[in-house]
Specification:
- Keywords: Membrane, Transmembrane, Transmembrane helix.
- This protein is mostly helical.
- The chain is 85% helix and 0% strand.
- It has one domain.
- The longest helix is centred in the last third of the chain and has 31 residues.
- The protein starts with a helix and ends with a helix.
Amino acid sequence: MRKYLFNGAVIGAVTSSWGIVQATRNGPRDWRLALMWLGWGISLTLAITAVRDEARERALEK
């Protein structure tokens, strides 16, 4: 679990959600908001997948 919490890509994806949360609170709710959340979800998924793949590669090297 620590490998996910301290990874720069995951931290970046999680902190980027702050702007989307603010846009959800204050902005209009239209198709652009849905695309922002979709893009954030994709970036978080890619970051988690990258960490998982990196951990698998390290395990195979041993």
